[in-house]
Amino acid sequence: MADEREPPPLMDEDEKDTTEQSPPEEKAPEADQEVSLNDDDDKDDLFSDPPLLETSPAVDEKPEGETEDSSASASGDGGGGVLDDVPIEKEPPKEEKKEEPKKDEAEEEEQESGDTYDMEITITDPQKVGDGMGAYMRYTVITKTTDPAFKSSDMSVPRRFSDFLGLHQKLVAYHTTKGHIVPPVPEKSVVGMTKVKMGKGQDESNSLEFVEKRRAALERFLNRSAAHPKIRANQDFKEFLEKEELPKASNTAALSGAGMMRAFNKVMDSASKVVSKMNESDQWFEEKTQQIDNLDQQLKKLHTSVENMVNHRRELSNATAIFAKSAAMLGNAEEHTALSRAISQLAETEEEIEQLQSSQAATDFYVLSELLKDYIGLIASVREAFREREKAFHNWQHAQTTLAKKREQEAKLKTTGKTEKLPQVQQEITDWEEKVEKGQREFEAISKTIRREVNRFETNRVQDFRSVIIKYLETLMEKQQKLIQHWEAFLPEAKAIA
């Protein structure tokens, strides 16, 4: 009987403790009761769990803050289940912390791809300077910009083709090693420039076409370079647009010793890539490499098809012009008045159609074909950036291998007791440890840069192809509508023949 009378005083002490601790525990059940009106199962759990927690001595010994936590946990479906749910509720803040660097990278990509200042570069007035084989073409580069980093908002400087090649070499030497994609510059053509220097008559018209192609390609090269924030901030690029005169570019001749050396170095780099191919562990780079290779193949095939279409339109335009002349001569010789007038009208219509076909051939080339050619060159620049990443990886691996050998050498010296060379080897180990860390930093940095550059390349590629396809279709529809108008205008003349 004595044992049965002991629990009441214990419950009285617990009630006193609960009243002395904090009033929120008394309010918590009231709130729970209001919620439990909609759920009978929760009501039983809410009122059954608190007595179990109140009778535990551990709860009485905890401070006020922890008793509030215990009362909050008591509102669950059970002690063990509630404790399991608590850490799960605390996981979302950790996920937010992981997303923070992703937001930073997205902001960096926006800063890389977006331009806060406007810049428009046009190349005009190509002029032939000099005579004979010593002649060269000089262009006027006009720049309009709102970027305060440049000395003026409106600049105009004369440049020759070798200046463009020299600028491209400097940009590649500085930016490609950092993982940036440098836009391509038109290749030097010995045959094309020979026609420009020595061309006469028909060759002169061909040389003018060559000069116009090169002018347009150089203009696209400068505008793509200016659209890249890092390249636009390059000092060599700024001087190219600002300075009235530049030092004569060296080693830019197509058949110079430096040109042959560059070609030899490219062959050696390709050979070394085959021999010491990087074991790619990053799935993103592996997928992008395959994607770039496939894109390059398809663009080259499409470029060949478009070139064939351009040649076909030009041949059709020439054939139409010949047909128009023959029809005009026939119309003049025809004695029947109505028939003569209809044939003459047909000749005039064919002349108009010949102009449309010639214009469409030019659109096919300058709008569509040149875009494909530019992106084939850009893909080559992407591959150059990938090769620089492989070089950084091999340098890092070489440093790790050398460091391992130095440590083995240190261990052998310690085991053999030859301590006279030990300080030198230890210093070399320290140096190579720094090289390993530097190599790792450089590899990670160029990998991060290439990721941003490729994403920027993909974004620009989609935008460029979208705008070009729309422009191409609009011009094609315009030409077809004019073609229909010409034939509709000729039809009454044909019907009037009696």
If you had to describe this structure to a student in words, what would you say it looks like?
- The protein has a three-stranded antiparallel sheet.
- It contains 16 helices and three strands.
- The chain is mainly alpha-helical.
- It is elongated and about 120 Å long.
- The protein has helices at residues 7-21, 24-36, 40-55, 57-61, 64-74, 79-89, 91-113, 161-175, 190-198, 202-227, 229-232, 235-242, 257-275, 283-333, 337-416, 422-495; strands at 119-129, 136-145, 154-160.
- Helix 15 packs antiparallel against helix 16.
- A hairpin with a 6-residue loop joins strand 1 and strand 2 (136-145).
- Residues 1-107, 110-114 and 254-258 have low confidence and may be disordered.
- It holds the Pfam family Vps5.
- Residues 285-312 form a coiled coil.
- One of its GO terms (molecular function) is phosphatidylinositol binding.
Question: How do the helices and strands line up, and which of them pair or pack?
Answer:
Blueprint: H1 7-21, H2 24-36, H3 40-55, H4 57-61, H5 64-74, H6 79-89, H7 91-113, E1 119-129, E2 136-145, E3 154-160, H8 161-175, H9 190-198, H10 202-227, H11 229-232, H12 235-242, H13 257-275, H14 283-333, H15 337-416, H16 422-495
Antiparallel strand pairs: 1-2, 2-3
Helix pairs in contact: 2-3, 7-16, 9-10, 14-15, 15-16
- Taken from the alpha-carbon principal axes, the silhouette is elongated
Q: The biggest beta sheet, please?
A: 3 strands, antiparallel
- Total beta strands: 3
Uncertain spans = 1-107, 110-114, 254-258
Radius of gyration: 39 Å
Distance between the termini: 137 Å
Proportion of strand residues: 5-15%
Instruction: Identify the strand order in the major beta sheet.
Output: 1-2-3
Overall mean pLDDT:
79
Spell the H/E element sequence: HHHHHHHEEEHHHHHHHHH
| DSSP summary: helix tally | 16
Q: What is the SS-derived class?
A: mainly alpha
GO molecular function: phosphatidylinositol binding
InterPro entries: AH/BAR_dom_sf (IPR027267), PX_dom (IPR001683), PX_dom_sf (IPR036871), Vps5_C (IPR015404)
Organism: Holothuria leucospilota (Black long sea cucumber)
Subcellular location: Cell projection; Early endosome membrane
